[in-house]
Amino acid sequence: MERTIRVTGKGKISVKPDMIRLLLNLEEVFEEYEQTLQQSAKQVELLKDCFETLGFERTALKTLSFNIDTENESYKDKQGIWRSKFVGYKFRHAMKIEFEADNKLLGKVLYALAHCAVRPEFRIQYTVRDVEAAKNQLLGKAVADSKEKAKVLSEAAGVELKDIILIDYSWGEIELVSQPMDRCMTLQESCCDMGAGAYEIDIEADDIDMSDTVTVVWGIE
After folding, report:
1. Which H or E run contains 204?
2. Domain map of the chain by residue range?
3. Confidence of residue 177 (pLDDT cuts 50, 70, 90)
4. Which of 55-69, 118-132, 152-166, 198-212 has the lowest mean pLDDT?
5. Which of 56, 70, 114, 121 is close enough to 25 for a disulfide, judged by CB 3.0 to 4.6 Å?
6. What DSSP letter does each residue of 138-189 carry, written as one string?
7. What is the pLDDT of residue 206?
8. 25 CB-contact burial (10 Å; exposed 0-12 / middle 13-18 / buried 19+)
9. CATH of segment(s) 16-74+85-128+179-204
10. Are 60 and 52 in contact (CB under 8 A)?
């Protein structure tokens, strides 16, 4: 039976974010189902108009999820019993748009949203453009750490490290996100208006810390 040593290595890196991801949510209730569909589509078009004035392609605004549910409200009848009453249909449309991490551009985007005909809730996230490069760098560090540990263990045990037999890695999803303001926001037209079609934004997003593990099996003799 072949003798082996199994070592788990851990990689850690910090990545400077270079992209802003704006997560936007629209929702509203209307009495009729058809009206709900029409108004949801109209509001999205108005939002696309808003971004188009800044030079974005209309296709840059991506849908993450869309649904329509019945909306009910509770009330007490004359006998004091709680009952449910149908109010209408509520649409929820979650979207995202990504652009270069630039505070001047972000200020223009937020100004445009504050003066848009619709008022979406939004959340600001910072991420990286080349996600795969960051993941590959992380995996390289994890394998190197495993190899270094294997050398120390084999020397301490008085055995010789041979070829790699197996690399065990679960390809889980790694979230590359920094979120300086961890809450949804809405803007009003008078909010922080600095003139010239932009707000003065001063956000320095923290580096994104990543870590992952890889298990490597070596032969020994």
Report:
1. none
2. 16-74+85-128+179-204
3. confident
4. 198-212
5. 121
6. HHHHHHHHHHHHHHHHHHHHT--EEEEEEEE---------B-SS-S-B---T
7. 87
8. middle
9. 3.30.70
10. no
